[in-house]
Amino acid sequence: MKQADCYDESTNGVVVMVEPYSQREQIQQVVYRILDANLDRVREGLRIIEEWCRFGLNSSQLAGECKRMRQEVASWHTAELRAARDTPGDAGTELTHPQEEQRASIKSLLQANFCRVEEALRVLEEYGKLYRPNMGKAFKQMRYRVYTLESNLMGYQRHQLLLRSRLYLVTSPTENLLETVEAALKGGLTLVQYRDKNADDATRIALAEKLRQLCHSYNAIFIINDRVDLALAVDADGVHLGQQDMPIAIARQLLGPHRLIGRSTTNSDEMQRAIAEGADYIGVGPVYETPTKIGKPAAGLEYVNYAAKHCSIPWFAIGGIDPNNINDVIDAGAQRVAVVRSIMQAEQPTLVTQYFLSQLNRIQPSPEKSYV
Ligand SMILES: Cc1ncc(COP(=O)(O)OP(=O)(O)O)c(N)n1
Ligand SMILES: Cc1nc(C(=O)O)sc1CCOP(=O)(O)O
Ligand SMILES: [Mg+2]
Q1: Which domain holds residue 45?
Q2: Are both 114 and 177 inside the same structural domain?
Q3: pLDDT digits 0-9 by tens, 294-333
Q4: Do 56 and 182 fall within a single domain?
Q5: Which of 124, 130, 194, 270 could hold 265 in an S-S bridge, CB 3.0 to 4.6 Å?
Q6: Which atom of ligand 1 is nearest to the CA of 168?
Q7: Whose CA is nearest to atom 15 of ligand 1?
Q8: Are 109 and 237 members of one domain?
Q9: Sign for the pseudo-dihedral over CA of 40, 44, 49, 51
């Protein structure tokens, strides 16, 4: 109705007959309500994402992009759209999905809100065409900006976590793989690589899916050893490639700019090539000879020392590192280490993880050198 329904206090109970909306006007009101609700939805979702960019990632660039989009959305939220709001009459306000009540991680919280924003933008794009000639186009463009923001944010987030990660667990096949990895995650581990040289692909995919979920529920990075196709299949955070594995340039083409690529290196030439080819991190080793990689001669603490002086990207000393020699490796200049047996074969993986981290966290983080 355009005026008070039937009873109006201002007329002391005198019934005022009002002219009903025409069918066309009723439809217009519905469109206004849809636009009003979805403009709010986009702004709320962007605000939730913006808070993480600002306080969680300290990224004024990503937070600024969220803010600019919120302001643009606000400029479309006219008084007539707001006036159409009818919250008590909205049949959708009580509909919630059980997953809205619970979020497993920051990643799933962000993904849920990106999804909400993108859906609402699509609604604004379609119904907006009925309201203003250029509204559909404006929200289509914004939807693409949000896709770009999502991809940048997820990539940035991964990279930040890589920079903060001091300990890297490379798994070996065992019956209680998930339990052992979870125990290490409970000890504060933030970087895991799934490595199994012998399992068939079906087994690898099934285990990798479970490991990815587990790692992400602890806000840890999940990497696949050797296989770019498996990394894509299970939506891993990246891949680790040795000198005989796929060239980095091809892996980058397949994985896109935001997933991580690690490379094994044994000497300064391999290190410098890996950096030039765009690796996100390198393995530096074997520091000591190890039964986990039979036949690979030790590169020794000298190479660790070289990496400490010359490596411009995050690097992990690997090979034969255990609680007894970790301090020698640290003294040679390592700030990050990768281990297999020390955690996979530990009786108490949580305690061993905590011990490694306690030693590694004693070192002041020095920025990666900007020269090689
Ligand atoms: C962190 C890390 N560093 C080195 C390796 C070894 O990779 P590669 O040389 O390809 O040997 P395999 O692991 O495939 O046997 C690694 N996996 N992780
Ligand atoms: C998988 C691997 N790569 C290495 C390299 O130097 O490239 S050493 C290594 C095995 C490390 O196992 P552990 O911690 O049990 O010694
Ligand atoms: Mg390999």
Answers
A1: 22-159
A2: no
A3: 999 999 999 999 999 999 999 999 999 999 999 999 999 9
A4: no
A5: 270
A6: 1
A7: 293
A8: no
A9: positive
Asked if residue 275 and residue 225 are part of one domain, the reply reads yes
What's the whole-model pTM score? 0.81
- The reply to whether 169 falls in a domain is yes
Task: Calculate the alpha carbon distances from 335 to 32, 242, 311, 365 in Å.
Answer: 57, 21, 12, 7
290 marked among binding-site residues: yes
Residues 107 and 192 in one domain: no
At residue 121's C-alpha, the angle toward residues 119 and 124, to 5°, is 115
In a domain, 347, yes or no: yes
Residue that terminates a domain, selected from 119, 137, 159: 159
Structural domain contains residue 102 = yes
Q: Of 189, 148, 161, nearest to 49 (Cα)?
A: 148
User: What are the φ/ψ torsions at residue 108 (nearest 5 degrees)?
Assistant: -70, -30
Average pLDDT, the chain: 91
Whether residues 277 and 354 fall in one domain = yes
- 195 belongs to the catalytic site: yes
Active-site residue identified among 293, 296, 312, 341: 293
What are the residues whose beta carbons fall under 8 Å from the beta carbon of 315, sequence distance 6 or more?
271, 281, 282, 283, 284, 307, 336
Please identify, among 137, 159, 181, the residue that sits at the C-terminal boundary of a domain: 159
96, two tokens: 């919630």
pLDDT, tens digit, for every residue of 238-259? 999 999 999 999 999 999 999 9
* Widest CA span in the chain: 98
Instruction: Give the tens place of pLDDT for each residue, 168-223.
Output: 999 999 999 999 999 999 999 999 999 999 999 999 999 999 999 999 989 999 99
> Taking residues 250-270, what's their average pLDDT?
97
**Ligand 3 geometric centre to CA of 184 (Å):** 23
Total number of domains in the chain = 2
337 assigned to some structural domain? yes
ipTM confidence score: 0.99
- Mark whether 369 is an active-site residue: no
Confidence class for position 228, pLDDT limits 50, 70, 90: very high
Please check if 40 is assigned to a binding site: no
Compute, in angstroms, the gap from residue 230 CA to the centroid of ligand 3. 13
Does residue 322 sit in the same domain as residue 338? yes
